[in-house]
């Protein structure tokens, strides 16, 4: 293995550790919230406007996701599912880079963020017009 391959593998391992840690921290945080039984704080945006904000339901969606209730999670808010899918994709991508011992420049990140913002904005309007009701 030459020095460039070693550097590429080291970068991939660092990214893999960072992304895996973020995913693990989210899962631990969701379980900790569930175990403590803390009440959900009311949304200030909803209290003022009567509309659900872009992130309304994220905590409940994350808790549903930890119970593998995928559809329920998406109905609360698709953001946690999008983040988990993205993080798992990055993990697979980094593992492939480690196996191949070659670093590939990621060019799809900006498009991923744009697509996620588009989905959240569409969800915001669909939720507030009653097309997608907030689950009970």
Identify low-pLDDT runs.
Answer: none
* Total individual domains: 1
Cα(first) to Cα(last) distance is 56 Å
The backbone outline, from C-alpha atoms, is: elongated
| Proportion of residues in extended strands | under 5%
If you average the pLDDT, what whole number results? 83
Main beta sheet: none
Helix content: over 70%
Oligomer: single chain
Q: Quickly count the helices.
A: 6
Task: Please provide a written account of the structure.
This protein is mainly α and 136 residues long. Helix content is 72%, strand content 0%. The chain is built from 6 helices and no strands. α1 (3-36) packs across α3 (58-66) and α1 packs antiparallel against α5.
Brief digest:
By secondary structure, the chain is mainly alpha-helical. It is built from six helices and no strands.
What order do the helices and strands come in, and which of them pair?
Elements: H1 3-36, H2 44-49, H3 58-66, H4 70-76, H5 79-100, H6 109-128
Structural key phrases:
mainly alpha, 6 helices
